[in-house]
Amino acid sequence: MDSLEWTRRVFRLRMIPNRVSSPADAATLLSKVLGITTDQIIVYSLAITPNNWESPPSRIATLRFKLVPPSLRDCMTQSEWRVSLPGAGHGDDLILDTHFQGMTTLNDVDPARHSVDCIAISGLASHPFGSWQPRGSDKTFMWIRDSLPLVVPGARAIIYGYDSDLMEAHSFQTISDIATSLILHLKAGDWNLPSSKPVIFLAHSLGGIVLKDAIVQAADREKSISGILDRVLGALMFGVPNLGMDQSQLMAMVEGQANEALIRDLSGESSNRYLRQLNTQFDGLSFTRTAQILWAYETKESNTVIQLPDGTWNKQGTPTVLVSPDSATNNQCRKDKSVTIPINRDHSNMVKFSRGDAQLGIVLSSIIEVCSKRLPIWAGASNLAHSSNKIGLISSSTHDTAMHTASTTGDFSDDLKVLGQLELIMTGIKELHDSLYSPELDRRIDQVEEPFENTFKWVYDLPAFTTWLQEGSGLFWIHGKPGSGKSTLMKFIYKNELTWDLLHDWTSDALEIKAGFFFHYRGTALQKSFEGVLRSLIIQLLAPIREAFWRQHGELWSDFEALRKRQAGLDRQIHDLQEALQRTKSKMFDLAEQKSHQADTEMSIAAGYRVEVTETKEELEKSEKKICESLEKVAAKRDSTDELLRPLANRFRPYATDPETVLLAGIAAQFRALQHGFIRTLENILHRILDQDKVKMDVVLFFDALDEFNGHLDTLSRFLQRLGKRPSTSSTRIKVCFSSRPWEQLRKYFSHCPGFRLQDYTRHDIEEYAAGKLAHSQVDNSLISPLAPAVITRANGVFLWVGLALKELLNFVVSNPDAATRENLEGVLQRLPDDLHAFYALMIERISSSNRRRTFALLELLIRQTAPPVLAADIRDAVLIESCNTFDQAILELQSHRRCHLGLVEAEKDLRLRADISTWGGGLVEINTRDNGEITLQLLHQTVMEFATGLDFKRLVLGDRAAISHENGHSLYLKYLICNKIDERHFFIRRRRPHVGSDGLTQKIFHHAEQHELTTGTSQIDFIISIPPDRFKHDFQMQLEFQHGVEDPASSPGPMTWNHLFLLYFATLNGLTLCLRDWISEHPGTLARLCQHFTKLPLLNNLIFQARREMSLKRHLKAMEMLVDAGFPDNNDLEFLDNYLGAICGIEFGGIRVTDDFAEMSKPVLHDIANIIFHLPKNVQQPWDLLRATCDVPGCVEPHLQTSMIIQELIRRGADPFARYQSRQTMDWVLGFLFPDSLDGHKSWDLGRRYYVCTTLLSAATWQHATPDSWLATVTEFEKAGYDTGDIRQDLRISTLQTVSGAAWAPSVRRPAWLSKPTTFRNEAGPEVTSNTAGSGDTGPGDTKNKAKRGFLRGLLNRKKR
């Protein structure tokens, strides 16, 4: 390489100290270490590295040299150089390179403005940085670095590099290997965390295939990896060979090289199952995750390469299209051109833009379009309290601390306050405990293996540990390798009386409390989450105080409850008598009205209503007197009970200010308030307990397996640090002992803490363990015992490795008795890998290839299971149907298996079950037996869970089949549970159902169906559609109503079978958007024809209001849009419209929910739904009529309870607010709330809601054709209640002197606090309407009719008031 070429190259400088804050400073630093002047270095960018392991993070720069530094002239051909900083320590070198591999940040963004990360992935045989630069000698511009951050607000630009060389390549990595590396880099940059910024990818050629493979891999892994997908907004794909490419020339170049298999995977031949499967899964995942994908394709041919006589290759071959438009757009250029971008360049140059390039503007605009997408709307983010209530976190009791405060002869307010405090503690603390407690919180410590006899006793001889127990404070860290016995030791310490003897201080009067939490990654969500920690600690810390309080005041509380029940009975009697008195007075008023209007028969006919009272005046007066006498007697009894409050209050008064009482009362009140969401409330309660200054407490906490926490370790680490640091005012002293692996993330927080490394002290314990294992074996171990020291040495402190190695040796002796020599056994031991994951891989390799699919299925089922644990027999049966694609195939397989077991006793069946699991599990699965004889399974160790959830696990077990298999544990559970959901009388599988109730079984089906789509990007449409229709309808309780005379939609032309109908119902109820998409795609035009046979088919209601809310509402809205676009007629789903309007009503009236299952929705979500409705393929008047038509359905929410936003949108889109519906104006429909055709046909609305209806409608448009006379009674009613009617009268041209009674109107003084008049949207044009005078002297042809309406209105309002 000559000097000129050197100066044209772009370099990357890494590990720049954080203190270097400007390009000029970076140039100065580098010039000093290279011995050149600063002006010989041009630094184009300086940014903070995305690596999360650096603290503080270093910086990274892109730069060029004007000359070759003398110190580098002898090594110019290298691609990486290390240069030492003066005075820096070992490992603190600057790293200069040209390969740009890994993540390179190209710009910094102000944290307040940082909104999105754009990550670019280069293509095949291209440079990570140079492939995005224009050709030529000018290397000063690179559009991703220099233009994108300026144009896309708040964007941070990053490029990702990997080895994609074609010639002389020695890497045999596959596309999946490169994708795995990308995932790990994304994880290292914290893009898997909720706190990270949204991401958009820019991918060229092979980079797009790598990205797709990474997305597919990540979706099917545990949350620390799949969390990456939660942040993906979309991608812009440049010339990605989705359907393959012409790679004949490339194959010639790599023939015989290590990377030949990688190039073969890019083939466009129909036999390339890898690309087809990858397309299917990526399309599904981008759809379910609502990611926007744009496809750019080349429109110029590219020169192919040819080999020259000297053996080199040159781009002088015949021009051809390397990636066709169909392949580059995944056929979207034929289906949806709106997501495609033609670029008039060849394949290589389509991403090389110069400054000011017109094509660059189009690309940047497309990036802005994707970046402007909102993040997915995750259910529960703003509704935590509500969702918590649904699962029992918040008491549903309607009782609060408010008690009877009616006026009495004595003043008992102080007594009520004292007893109110007692009630708050007794009920509130019980609600807290019942809401937080779950048996699973204590289950893990019982599952941890008991220590082997005579092991771990040495821990009480360690001065560091015993001194900390007796005199220390803060944190104590026990760390060790995986499998070294950390959990067993922690259980030993936690349960051992010696621990508490050492902790106890007999001179202290403080309350001594112990608490512990053992994390369990293989367990339930509560066993590995921060929520579980908070729940457990609060319960354990409060337990001694709560129990002591109950013992002291439980009897008093019982007496108080008995008195309250007596008072409640008397209050009900008083209420009933008061209602009876009100009804009697109303009848007396109606009787007087009836007499005054007896002659006005036209009124009764016109109104369609007649007030009639049958009792006489004397009878009503007598009834009134009797009710008053009874009311007086009951009220006297009620007052006398208040006298009993004082002695009860006096019993508690001396304790009302006790420290324990004040502490418990504050906690109960805080929990009931739940002001900041559930988790935040628990955090505040824990802070209150630990920071309180009322009760002296000495607290010691034990945490096991921090590395099994299912969240970011920084969160948990900071939590532990804060636990050990209490404010000086606190009366609580805390010390915390915890265990974990010695991960770097934990070292940076706890390396200064006292503690010890477990494997340094366990050699004697391991010797005892090994001797015990050999002594209890049934095999002659005379040849193995001499190898025990070698086993122990190889184990290096890991108990688990010892157990596995001894098992290998014993199995060899049993399987090869003739070859069981000392030499052969030493060979077996020598071949065993030291690393546990490598050991597990060896165990997998020993499983026969014919059983590998079932091995994969078994381990997948164990890592995907939900609580409660599934029984072994159920897991075995689920494994058996792993290859079944239809319901009938699965049933036949299960029936066949059962027939093979006919005649066997239970013991024999259990033996076969254990044999199957042992064969498939290869030693990685433990078989356990419960006390009741049930057999359960679990993975051997947490390290096996990590192994089975690793990115390369699937390829290791299934080999090449992994690339084309989309099954996982969720799909296996789904198929098996559906088989068991079907009635056993028709499809008998076995006598015992899965270990879960009917409702729980249905919920598990729903869960696994949705998770299968979200983790694989594929649907189970073939299996679901194959379910027998009659069983589907029976077992899944479908709610359908046929058109008159229709019995079976299959009787109509076209593919309208019951199976299709049930699939749609099942898919919408479970939010299976991929199932819906696939069905609609395969059956165009069928949905509208199918719906013709039903008057009720609640697909939209299922999808939006009934579907499970664990996932994104945005995905459900997308599915709703698909149904509407496919021709779903909304009049089949009036229940959806009812719930939708009810949701809007709930927003306006403080979050009222229509049903217990209806989750509150935000206005933006409701507006998105409205937009879908507005875009129905019908005329613009239809939406208004559609919403209004729900009034015809008894019990539906009236149509005008919409936010002004949506009403105005309706009018803006052309809906006519004056249109007639069934011969009546919209205004008449509003009056219909007061003049219904049938009093039973409408709900009874309170005055506030009717006032809201009127003001909202009047704010949206001027009601030019309204008849003011018909509004007088309504306006007068509002005024009597104190509502402001000035705007209503002005809008309707009603005189301020007009009232129903003819009396002058006076301005009101009250306006509801919750009501703010919506922004007006008025049509000021049009003639002014002059209304008839409606006073007492009405004249004209309409007088009689108006008088009749007013008379009717008075009677109706009186009835509504009653």
UniProtKB/TrEMBL annotation:
SUPFAM superfamilies hit by this protein: alpha/beta-Hydrolases, P-loop containing nucleoside triphosphate hydrolases
Nephrocystin 3-like N-terminal domain residues: 454-585
Cross-referenced InterPro entries: AB_hydrolase_fold (IPR029058), NPHP3-like_N (IPR056884), P-loop_NTPase (IPR027417)
Coiled-coil zones: 560-626
Compositionally biased tracts (Basic residues): 1347-1362
Chain positions covered by the region annotation Disordered: 1316-1362
Alphabetical keyword list: Coiled coil, Repeat
Domain of life: Eukaryota
Name of the protein: Nephrocystin 3-like N-terminal domain-containing protein
Species per Swiss-Prot/TrEMBL record: Cercophora scortea
Record lineage: Eukaryota, Fungi, Dikarya, Ascomycota, Pezizomycotina
